[in-house]
Design brief:
By secondary structure, this protein is mainly beta. 5% of the residues lie in helices and 37% in strands. The longest helix is centred in the first third of the chain and has 4 residues.
Length: 163
Amino acid sequence: MSTPSTPAALRALDVALHPRQTAYPEPFAAMVKGREKRRLGEVFGLSNFGVNLTRLKPGAVSSVRHHHSRQDEFIYVLEGTPTLRTDAGETRLEPGMCAGFKAGSGNAHQLRNDSAADVWYLEVGDRQSGDRAVYPDDDLAVEVANGVPVYRRKDGTPFGPAA
């Protein structure tokens, strides 16, 4: 049952863009410029998993290429033709296609919009405590404790505050 602060249903595009589009420190925050997320799960008070409606403008990427130790991730393409980049190579996706990334698999992934049109997709991920993400192409690692990401270099040196 919905409460006055929790709607029963709504149009996804009516959900405001999250005021902080990334927690990445620089220079990684600049890499995801052109990515816009609407955190749909938060509107409904979901706490076990997150659901985002994400838009990638032409030339944008979804994230720094990464894999998770404890978080499963799933994406479903609604519109556009992003390129999925994984350890196995690149795959052009189309609307109606989906991909999943099992926690602990070590398969680093990223979506990239190489087209001239926007890409829209849903992303779903769980919220396992103690998750670690590894970024094999970059000097970056993150550990999530109580929902707060702590970014470090691979040698353990912390970055300053996120941009």
